[in-house]
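Name: Aspartyl/glutamyl-tRNA(Asn/Gln) amidotransferase subunit C
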Amino acid sequence: MSIDKETARRAAYLARIEVKDEDLDALAGELSGILDFMEQLSEVDVEGVEPLTSVTPMNLPMRKDEVTDGYQQDKILANAPDAREGFFAVPKVVE
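Structure predicted for Aspartyl/glutamyl-tRNA(Asn/Gln) amidotransferase subunit C:
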């Protein structure tokens, strides 16, 4: 698939990046190359191939799914500029 200059300009606008007019041809070429590579990848037969979490086989450790408070209240509040009664204290902003 070939990307033209106007499509590259539109992609840059949507991505909120500033691209100078003289750089649009290069950007269009790079985007076309990316799309060509994606087309090549779509030709690969991946039927029956298991997804990987790593290139080496491993079992991820599992833990019980329990809701806790983290048991670190004192450590967390130690970073606060003002803490009272186990909570962050902030200035009143609503009258």
